[in-house]
Structure formats: structure tokens, C-alpha cells
Design a protein that fits this description.
Elements (H helix, E strand, L loop, with lengths): L24 E5 L7 H6 L9 E5 L5 H9 L4 E3 L5 H11 L1 H33 L3 H21 L2 H8 L5 H19 L4 H13 L9 H4 L7 H18 L7 H9 L20 H16 L10 H10 L6 H13 L4
Parallel strand pairs: 1-2, 2-3
The structure holds fe (ii) ion (2 copies).
One fe (ii) ion binds next to helix 7.
Length: 335
């Protein structure tokens, strides 16, 4: 919400810079302020650029408010407002900022709807055995995902994708978006970004052959159901391999994206060098996306929690890729 409205978000005073204060406003939100924090922030070198400060905090005591008032804190809202209330407060301060924020939100919402519909269509084409249409769908999806990544901060487009109703569309879109972000941060050429994107987009198409009582089960799977679910990797390969429209590496990623470098994955238990580089990238994006997914029956992990879980997997994942992925996890974290 805040960065949609044009605020730079920083979790620590050292992260603030005068350049962030494009509008001359500082907004501080939080329930727990360590002693001295506010005074410290309010006397920093950036205060020369400040016109107004807006402070939110449910647990600010009367004494703290009085003290802030004394040092000339002009705009204090004691409780954390709803987005609508926040918008109206900020609109009173600077309507142009609100207009810019609203157009960002509108752009993000429109792109996201196109992506959700495209992802649903992709699986319909696969179900109908129409690989040519699925490939065209993935090619135009690449452009929409580029627009999505450019339209807002990662935390925003992630939260929009996390609202997708269909779990498979949500997962496919999350893995694709995270893979695109990762490819950009690794400095991949546009050609390699497209290869990785396509691999992400198709990695789980084998799920069209998994019965819905397993695929949509609201809870964890038992051993038999897990075995059924695991067939999706080989099924994906069977769907995508041996044809003229899909590159063989895309089919191989679908088959191998649950393989681990220590040989404990499935379906073949291959390890080490037999796991291709492109698969190693997708596996990291896939696990990360699955952990942060929003489902009615489970609390999603935060991006930082998800990254800690990836780190705890020891020798299963490519260590240098995982190190590079820390930037992605950080940019997906709200503060
Ligand atoms: Fe999978
Ligand atoms: Fe997946």
C-alpha cells in the first residue's frame, strides 16, 4: 500500500536517504519504537527536505505523543488507519501523489488480470493437447510478466498474484515471476530470460494428469496421495517431450525440477552434474514460490522464512545460486 502511494520503504533509519524524500513527506509506521528512534530520525540530515511527517502507531503513549508534539511533529495519527483512511489523509496533503499511486495500482491490477487469465488458458491448452497454443500463450505471457515486474515493487505484484483463486495458476505465475526476477538479477541475456521463463511457465504442466482430489486437497498429503502427486514430474515430461514446438530442455526441467543435487529427489533420484543448470534455477524458484503461496488452509511463509528454509536444505540445492537468490528473497520482503 505505502509504496504504491509513492513512499520509499525503509526498515531502519540508516536506510533512509534524502533522495527517498521526493515528496517532502516522511511516514513512520509501527507499534514498537525503540527509545530515541523517533528523535534520532527527526533530527537526521534529511529533515531539511521534510515538509511534513505522518506518524502511525497503535501503542504510542500519551507522553510520547506529547514529546513529539513539543519538537514540532505536525501530523500525528495515533492508530494505524485503514487504506481508505490513509488515502484520504494523504490526499489532503498531496493529491498528485495519490493520483500517481492510484494509476500504479490500476496498471498493476490490469496486468495481473491478463496474467491470471493467460495462466488458466495455458493449462486448458495443455489439457486439450494443444501444445502450439500453449507455446503462444507462454510467449505473450513473457511480455505481460515484464510489464508486471516493471509496474510495481516485488512485494506488490507478489501480493496481487497471491490472491489468484486457482492454486495452480497462482503457483505457475509465482514461479514464473520469481524466475524472471532472478534471471534479471543474474544478468541473463533476453534470450536466456525467455528460456528460463518458459521453463518456469511449463514446469508443473504434468499436474493436469493429477486427480483433483489430490491436487486440490485442502491439507497435507498422505503417503499414497504424495506418490500420486509425484507422478506430475514424469507426466510433464511426457506431455512436453518429442515434439517440434517445445525445446527439449523445457521438457527436461518439467521432469527434473524435484531432483536434488544430493540425489534424494524424484522421479529418478539423479544428483550432482546430471541436474542441469536451468533446472537448478527453477527448483529454487519453485520451492520458494510454494512456501510463500497463499492457500485457504495454510499460512504462507514470509519471503525471509522461505529463504531460511531453502538454506536449511543443505546440499540439495546449488549453493552459489542459493546465495545469489538472497537478493530476490530480500526484494520480496515488505521491509
Ligand atoms: Fe512440481
Ligand atoms: Fe512447482
Amino acid at each position: 500500500m505505502l509504496s504504491e502511494l509513492g513512499f520509499a520503504i525503509a526498515s531502519h533509519r540508516d536506510a533512509f536517504s534524502a533522495a527517498d524524500l521526493q515528496h517532502g513527506f516522511m511516514l513512520i509506521a509501527g507499534d514498537h519504537f525503540v527509545p530515541g528512534f523517533l528523535a534520532d530520525v527527526l533530527t537526521g540530515p534529511w529533515t531539511a527536505h521534510l515538509e511534513r511527517v505522518v506518524l502511525f502507531g497503535n501503542r504510542l503513549g500519551t507522553r510520547a505523543l506529547a514529546a513529539l508534539d513539543e519538537i514540532g511533529f505536525p501530523f500525528i495519527v495515533k492508530s494505524l488507519p485503514t487504506p481508505a483512511r490513509l488515502t484520504s489523509i494523504l490526499a489532503a496533503i498531496d493529491p498528485s501523489m495519490i493520483a500517481a499511486g492510484q494509476s500504479t495500482i490500476a496498471r498493476l491490477t490490469a496486468t495481473s488480470s491478463v496474467i491470471e487469465a493467460g495462466s488458466n488458458r495455458l493449462f486448458e491448452h495443455i489439457r486439450a493437447g494443444n501444445l502450439g497454443a500453449a507455446v503462444s500463450e507462454a510467449k505473450s505471457a513473457f511480455n505481460h510478466f515484464e510489464a508486471l515486474l516493471d509496474s510495481a515493487a516485488a512485494t506488490h505484484w507478489l501480493s496481487v498474484i497471491q490472491q489468484y483463486h486457482d492454486g495452480t495458476a497462482q503457483h505457475c505465475s509465482l514461479v514464473s515471476a520469481v524466475a524472471m526476477l532472478f534471471a534479471r538479477s543474474l544478468g541473463f541475456s533476453e534470450g536466456d530470460q525467455r528460456r528460463l521463463f518458459e521453463a518456469a511457465h511449463f514446469h508443473d504442466v504434468g499436474k493436469v494428469r493429477v486427480p483433483l482430489f489430490v491436487l486440490d486437497k485442502p491439507g497435507s498429503l498422505d503417503a499414497d496421495e504424495r506418490a500420486i502427486m509425484e507422478t506430475h514430474a514424469k507426466a510433464g515430461y511426457d506431455i512436453l517431450a518429442h515434439n517440434d514446438v517445445i525445446a527439449s530442455e523445457i521438457a527436461e526441467v518439467a521432469r527434473d525440477h524435484h531432483e536434488y543435487l544430493d540425489g534424494t529427489g524424484y522421479p529418478r533420484g539423479i544428483g550432482g552434474r546430471r541436474v542441469a543448470d536451468i533446472t537448478r534455477v527453477i527448483t529454487i524458484c519453485d520451492i520458494f514460490a510454494a512456501l510463500i503461496e497463499q492457500r485457504p488452509y495454510k499460512q504462507p511463509k514470509t519471503a525471509r522464512e522461505a529463504y531460511s528454509i531453502l538454506q536449511s536444505l543443505g546440499g540439495k540445492l546449488d549453493p552459489s545460486l542459493l546465495r545469489s537468490f538472497s537478493k530476490i528473497a530480500e526484494s520480496c520482503s515488505p521491509d
